[in-house]
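Entry:
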Amino acid sequence: MSIEEKWVIFDYGGTLALPSPRVTCNNLGAYFSRVLPPQQREQFLHILQRSWEGADERGRALGLDVSLCTILHDVLRELNIPFVGTQHVVDSFLRQLGDGEVTPAAAAAVREIKSQGYKIGLASNTLRSSKVRIESLQRAAIADEFSAVIISSEIGFRKPHPVFFEILLRRIGAIPEQVVFVGDTWHKDVLAPIESGMRAVWIAEGNKADPVSVRHSVPLISDISQLPSLLAQMSMAVSASRDVQY
């Protein structure tokens, strides 16, 4: 891979899209238990609650993540219920629940950034599968712009865990210096990528300079529509720096 290859990796909710409806133990249990015999539903919901809380505790304490299928398989295994076709049921549940809609401004920015020569990726903390998330990008007519989609529940780690970003870099075949990470959450989308050696852009509502962002020299924008011009400026600054070194 050429050192000149450049990547922009986006967070999803709050960055490219409106916030997504929350996946909860209750709405998953209500949907899935409908396909079970009535006599097993109460026990299923009880075990699901226990499994869900355990997964959530590990996520908060260790930065680990699991897929909805993994949670359901653990529950069904305890109930001695076959779990063939679970992924199909999970994806159906997620489609019914819905996903955050990509904003028109974000779609336009993605297309313009791609035209500047960047490769585009998505890196998201979510229980939604990559298949369902890609369908959301397809509805915005930008799925073809993305060369990589990294989902926390599919790789087993969530932002800001360092391993999340190690896997991200391996998946896209890039070194940290080739990547600009764009997101709206300071510790997950800005500080963690910087600590992994990447550059970052913080989408912060109000565009007010924050002491933390100033200390880290983090570019800050108030709206994603400002990103293409900012990236152009950052690229020129990097080129100028290389010219000075030579």
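DSSP finds eleven helices and six strands in the chain.
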